[in-house]
Structure formats: structure tokens, C-alpha cells
Specification:
Elements lengths: L1 H20 L4 H22 L24 H28 L7 H7 L14
Helix pairs in contact: 1-2, 2-3
Pfam family, one: Oxidored_q2
Organism: Crenobacter luteus
Membrane topology: Multi-pass membrane protein
Length: 127
């Protein structure tokens, strides 16, 4: 029952993040990307079997574990994904602030900056 609840929670977070990421508001897009990253982290964490287990440490002289141990790989992957997700969120916030900076783009000035077309109708080259 707990695994089903965990899976449904991850699916709900992923769906909310996708819905927000597909909206047109920049803040919603950034929050949506953060939620999708969180859902991916929870999925990876859940793939490592969320159970109580002992740390994977061997006593001196032992060569094998006598009991069930926790798998450190999903924890390391999630920790790395959290750092990458934080960097992606910071970049998305900086990009959103830059895009919403209020500068207007003059279409005529952009058209004047383009090189004239060639005689054969192909795009012109830069001098």
C-alpha cells in the first residue's frame, strides 16, 4: 500500500510539473521544471527500495554481509541529481529574468541588420 501511495505521489508531482512547464508564464515554467526534477529524484530514490536497512559497512575480518544492507547507489544518484536540478533551476530563473527584462526588440532594426539576398534568391552572405 505504501509503494502504491509513493508511486501515485510521484506521478502527481510529475503531472503538476509537466502542466506548469507547458504554461506560458515564465514563473510557472521555472516551477514546473523544478517539480519535474523533483519527481525524477523521487523516482530514482524509490527505485532504490525505500526500506529500513543497515549501512553497508563490514566489520574487520568479514568478507560478506550477514544482513540486508542499504544500496548507496540510488542515494548518490539522487544527491547528484539534486545538485544538477538546483543548477538548472538557477539557470532557468536567470534566463526568465533576462527574458522578462522589459527590453523590446525592434523588428525593423533586425531586418536592416540582415545581409541583402543574393541575385539567385538564396540568402545573402555577410561581407
Amino acid at each position: 500500500m505504501t509503494n502504491l501511495l509513493f508511486a501515485l505521489s510521484v506521478a502527481a508531482i510529475a503531472a503538476a510539473g509537466l502542466w506548469l512547464a507547458l504554461r506560458r508564464d515564465l514563473v510557472d515554467i521555472v516551477i514546473g521544471l523544478a517539480l519535474v526534477g523533483t519527481a525524477a529524484n523521487l523516482f530514482l530514490f524509490g527505485a532504490g527500495r525505500v526500506v529500513e536497512a543497515r549501512p553497508p559497512l563490514l566489520a574487520a575480518g568479514e568478507t560478506a554481509f550477514a544482513h540486508a544492507v542499504a544500496n548507496p547507489l540510488p542515494q548518490a544518484l539522487v544527491l547528484t541529481a539534486i545538485v544538477i536540478g538546483f543548477a538548472l533551476t538557477c539557470f532557468a530563473v536567470a534566463l526568465a529574468l533576462r527574458l522578462a527584462g522589459g527590453r523590446e526588440v525592434d523588428g525593423d532594426a533586425l531586418s536592416a541588420a540582415e545581409p541583402p539576398p543574393a541575385r539567385d534568391g538564396e540568402p545573402g552572405g555577410l561581407p
